[in-house]
Design goal:
The chain is an alpha+beta fold. The radius of gyration is 15 Å and the shape is globular. The protein contains 3 helices and 10 strands, in the order H-E-E-E-E-E-H-E-E-E-E-E-H.
């Protein structure tokens, strides 16, 4: 008999805010408009990696079609990229950043995620983290993910 996996618990739930939701919508829209034929762009998806359960704000996966009759509550497949958006609801900025990067390096990369985007709304930057602890930070111009080849203009992401 197959063991049923529980979704994330209430203690794992992330709080949101207007800016967080706005950024998540912008990113999902931009990514879907430009890359829908190449990738599946998904929001708030629960994963159960060997390294632990997690729910990134967005993820980029190899293109796959939805099976409307057979849904997955918790996904086992590893995304290429996960996107985390810092929010004022996460607590003090230094705790928020530390807790997010700790989760990224302890859960996402050990599972096989290739890149993680860390979006910081208050300073309008996106850092792309790599498993080897290298990172690229973008504060203007065009963001380019070295693994997926995805390119987005920061002015579109942080559009007012």
């Amino acid at each position: 008999m197959e063991e049923l996996l529980e979704p994330l618990t209430d203690s794992d739930e992330k709080m949101s805010s207007f800016n967080h939701a706005e950024l998540q919508s912008h990113l999902a829209f931009l990514l879907r408009m430009q890359y829908r034929n190449q990738y599946s762009i998904l929001t708030e998806l629960d994963f159960d990696f060997a390294s632990g359960k997690t729910r990134p704000d967005l993820c980029i996966m190899p293109k796959r079609k939805a099976d409307w009759l057979d849904d997955e509550i918790i996904v086992q497949e590893v995304p290429l990229t996960t996107i985390e958006i810092l929010s004022p609801c996460d607590g003090p900025p230094e705790q928020s950043l530390n807790s997010r990067t700790e989760r990224i390096y302890k859960k996402h990369f050990p599972a096989g995620v290739k890149t993680v985007w860390l979006v910081v709304p208050t300073v309008q930057t996106v850092s792309i983290l790599l498993p080897n602890r290298q990172q690229m930070t973008f504060s203007q111009g065009q963001l380019t993910d070295p693994v997926t080849g995805i390119q987005l203009n920061l002015s579109d992401i942080f559009e007012g």
